[in-house]
């Protein structure tokens, strides 16, 4: 049996295993089908204040519109000050005021100032001073601050109904830190029939008792999901396992805030989710600044894109407030946002209700090894196309299989999975590009008449099916909870975009210009470098350079060149019309270019076949990029890819038909 057939068999086995894994992943994703719209309590308090309405009536209106849950933040010194329950100052400011009036209205603080020397007053000048006359607030702060501030950094003052705290912390930072929950807020939200979602905030020096007290509050209010506030998770760093074990024991889910690739998750989330059996729910929201900046339709579109493209199941809503508009307008615009989002959720085939966590999913090591063998086989096929001998390929194949298997069964399994996925994202698009070049070469050197429609569609389908195999492999080997919840993710996007294009250029020179050995290849390159440059060549180079810069800068989740306003509107239209929006660079550029490249090959133009082939390569390699976003719903990734093929083929055929008519008319005239 020829080596090529053996390699194809390994790829088929890998594909079959991948399909079974992908089907299992789809089953898990199909059960992760309920989207919850959650309102931020603080922002709705602000809305109530601006509109002159009471909070209960505002929340009731939002509930009628479809709001399911309400997120409750911990009390902060800043929020207590805003509500008029405490006064906040720096010690130096309080000292200056006392010098002027000798009466602060707080005898406890006055006695403290009297006890300080001038040197101490200067030394403690930037300490935070908190004053209140509410004994309930004093007791709340006494307990909260004792837990969060070391004894030598906290002074508690009490005398004749006056209460004060002196805190050795930076004011701008510390006054926004959580101090525990106002249970009346939790009680209000629960009494109105909302799903209560506390925003728990970790703090330095947290103890087991503190964590247990948090969990006791969650149990008291029948909390199903928590979204951590701040930069880290509860218990980070040393108490994560204990906190996660209590969450797991009590069936409490964790909201995992969606962040762009490369950006940091909340510290400790990876460990917390793992200890909690990945009871996670993806959360996405528009920031407070963006909420006030964007119009309501853009906010809703961003939410919708989150649930479709990133598997978000909690939409975090901050109230949109326009001080220049009436109270009725402000209430109505927020209700409309909820109603529109509810409509879009249902249109996407999802349910509206209390979100449930993604079921835990992992791949066995055996499955990973079988899948990786197909990727290795694909790599050997690629090397075979470049003329590497069979004995070398067999040796490389055995070495690759052994090393990959050893890595996958070791503690470096994560690294092995990512390397295999990255290799698949480079190898299979390159194989598709290689097939495309081989077939265009046959057309350029054809000696018999061929049917353009049949030939072009055959090459079109096969060129795209080959990278689709790689895409299914990536979707399968990374079908794991941590990737689906984007706790971890595919790496090497830029490589998977650039390397297949480099292969295209090299392989095109080798096959089309018969550079089958190194000496001939160098000779062909020299010939290319010595050609007479015409103006149109320069124009083409400049255009290609601009397109290339935009192309590379637009890859990944944080593109340097942002989509234009028109493009965003077009995307929104496609998303709401098709749900599974095809990628623009596939159905408008890359896929039609395959048809156009074949047409130029029929016209015996090596130059234009090469140029169109570059754009065709973009369509071929873009497929694996779609599936590299493991947090995306797999069925939608498949649907958007197939839609892109259909639209791309139609657009390509229409453009060829028009071009053919135009060229024939020009030829007739001359």
Q: In a nutshell, what does this entry contain?
A:
The protein has 670 residues and is of the alpha/beta class.
Topology:
Layout (H helix, E strand, L loop, with lengths): L2 H29 L2 E7 H11 L3 H11 L3 E5 L3 H6 L4 E4 H11 L5 H9 L2 H6 L4 E5 L2 H14 L5 E6 L2 E6 L3 H4 L8 H9 L3 E5 L8 H13 L4 E3 L12 H10 L3 E5 L11 H7 L4 E6 L2 H6 L2 H14 L4 E4 L9 H21 L3 E2 L12 H21 L4 H20 L3 H32 L7 H26 L3 H4 L8 H20 L5 H12 L5 H19 L11 H14 L5 H19 L3 H23 L5 H36 L1
Parallel strand pairs: 1-2, 1-11, 1-12, 2-7, 8-9, 9-10, 10-11
Antiparallel strand pairs: 3-4, 4-6, 5-6
Write up what this structure looks like.
The protein is of the alpha/beta class and 670 residues long. It contains 28 helices and twelve strands. The protein has helices at residues 3-31, 41-51, 55-65, 77-82, 91-101, 107-115, 118-123, 135-148, 171-174, 183-191, 208-220, 240-249, 269-275, 288-293, 296-309, 327-347, 365-385, 390-409, 413-444, 452-477, 481-484, 493-512, 518-529, 535-553, 565-578, 584-602, 606-628, 634-669; strands at residues 34-40, 69-73, 87-90, 128-132, 154-159, 162-167, 195-199, 225-227, 253-257, 280-285, 314-317, 351-352. The strands form two sheets. Strands 1, 2, 7, 8, 9, 10, 11 and 12 form an eight-stranded parallel beta sheet that branches. Strands 3-4-6-5 form a four-stranded antiparallel beta sheet. Helix 17 (365-385) packs antiparallel against helix 20 (452-477) and helix 19 (413-444) packs antiparallel against helix 27 (606-628). The longest helix is centred in the last third of the chain and has 36 residues, at 634-669. The protein is elongated, with a radius of gyration of 31 Å. The relative contact order is 0.10.
